[in-house]
């Protein structure tokens, strides 16, 4: 899959814009629709394009198994990315991933792309032989950007829980938050995604601060380019943890 090369640079500009605002939203509070909380305008990343592979068709009814995490816990027996159904359709993976600060995502079923990002692919139940990016993360120069993509603006079955687990795995590994803070952040993200699912948060370029020490923002935004029509839920945070790879969650 062809990855948009300017994805990270756009978010680098976004972070600069974020630091100029004095508005904050506490992680312990429940997010509300964009008409009420203070928010700032940021530019979301362009989405990856979908891909159709005519050969070796996949089972169009296959779906990644949903994750039902215990609140406050990060350890799960189900991988974040159940991509076995599309592995035969994907291009060969890149070389060594030892220098990537997100290399632990490989054990969760993610694949590293040429630009250094890590992506989780899923099949399209509506079209045989088609797959697209469900989750993607990239870290560079102390900035972490991670997205959960909604095809046609709709969350797949189990994608809400999977997205929260994905974001929290990154936050636990890449920031210095303690367990109490992570529990508050998890509740905030769960509430935010629930409002998105209910249609109470509309796509926009407004970001909401969920982690003040790490300048962590979440937004629900339209996809500005690419063939995948829909929206994405994206987090954008500073990562004080060293770029040295950390041990994966087991």
Automatic annotation (TrEMBL):
UniProt biased composition (Polar residues): 70-80
Domain of life where this protein originates: Bacteria
Region (Disordered): 27-80
Keyword terms of this UniProt record: Signal
Positions with biased composition (Pro residues): 31-49
Signal peptide stretch: 1-27
The protein's name in its UniProt record: DUF3298 domain-containing protein
Taxonomy of the source species: Bacteria, Bacillati, Cyanobacteriota, Cyanophyceae, Nostocales
């Amino acid at each position: 899959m062809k990855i948009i090369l300017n994805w990270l640079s756009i978010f680098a500009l976004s972070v600069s814009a974020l630091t100029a605002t004095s508005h904050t939203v506490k992680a312990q509070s429940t997010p509300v629709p964009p008409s009420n909380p203070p928010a700032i305008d940021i530019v979301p990343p362009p989405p990856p394009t979908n891909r159709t592979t005519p050969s070796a068709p996949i089972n169009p009814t296959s779906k990644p198994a949903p994750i039902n995490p215990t609140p406050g816990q990060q350890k799960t027996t189900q991988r974040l990315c159940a991509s076995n159904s599309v592995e035969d359709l994907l291009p060969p993976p890149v070389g060594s991933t030892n220098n990537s600060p997100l290399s632990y995502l490989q054990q969760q079923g993610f694949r590293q792309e040429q630009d250094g990002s890590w992506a989780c692919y899923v099949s399209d139940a509506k079209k045989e032989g088609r797959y697209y990016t469900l989750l993607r993360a990239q870290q560079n120069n102390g900035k972490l950007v991670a997205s959960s993509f909604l095809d046609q603006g709709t969350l797949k079955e189990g994608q809400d829980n999977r997205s929260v687990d994905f974001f929290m795995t990154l936050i636990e590994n890449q920031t210095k938050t303690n367990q109490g803070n992570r529990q508050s952040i998890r509740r905030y993200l769960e509430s935010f995604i629930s409002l998105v699912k209910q249609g109470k948060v509309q796509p926009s370029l407004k970001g909401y601060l969920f982690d003040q020490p790490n300048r962590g923002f979440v937004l629900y935004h339209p996809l500005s380019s690419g063939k995948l029509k829909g929206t994405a839920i994206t987090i954008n945070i500073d990562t004080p943890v060293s770029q040295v790879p950390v041990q994966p969650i087991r």
